[in-house]
Structure formats: C-alpha cells, structure tokens
Write a structure and sequence with these properties.
mainly beta; 10 Kd Chaperonin, Protein Cpn10, Chain O; single chain; 37% strand; elongated
Length: 103
C-alpha cells in the first residue's frame, strides 16, 4: 500500500490527549540569545485531539474528559510520550498529566 501525501487524522484512545508543546524561548527578556542546549522544554501546550474518555468498569459507560481540543494547558515536566506526526513534534499523555487549563 502506497503512502499518501495527504494529512491523516490521529485519534487518541480512551483518556489520552494529543498536545503540541509550545516553542522554547530563543532569547531572554534582556535580549540574550540562548543556545539550543540551554533551552528548557516548555511545560505548556495546546491540545490537538482528545480521546473518548476513560471506561467506567461498573457501568460500562465512558467518563468524558474535562479538557477539549484547542485548550491551552500546563502539564508536568516528564509527562507524555513524544511522537512525530507529519513532521510535527507532539506529546501523547493522559488527562491525569494535565495540571491546569490556561484561560
């Protein structure tokens, strides 16, 4: 089967969330440019896609997620699994890894 050049959709499963991490700062507030090795990876990002929710084992129904596509979120430092999709670096993480939603 040949690969198509068109974009494909990624649908996280259950309580998983697909997040695009914000870009790292390239210079300090005083104007000093930072080398690539000294940049901290941001702990904020925008949700690109969400799963259909965790399964309630007692009732068999899905528990909906509290976040939605487009939400700007703060997550813990080492949360998620980094994946590369269509030349974009993304994170797949559980809703439990989200610390806050930025309004």
């Amino acid at each position: 089967m040949a690969k198509s050049d068109s974009k494909f959709a990624v649908r996280p499963l259950h309580d998983k969330i697909l997040v695009k991490r914000d870009e790292a700062e390239t210079k300090t507030s005083s104007g000093i440019f930072l080398p690539e090795t000294s940049k901290d990876k941001p702990k904020t990002g925008t949700i690109q896609a969400v799963g259909d929710g965790a399964l309630n084992t007692e009732t068999g129904q899905r528990i909906p997620l509290t976040v939605k596509k487009g939400d700007k979120v703060i997550f813990s430092s080492y949360s998620g699994t980094e994946v590369k999709i269509n030349d974009q670096e993304l994170l797949i993480m559980s809703e439990d890894d989200i610390l806050a939603v930025i309004d």
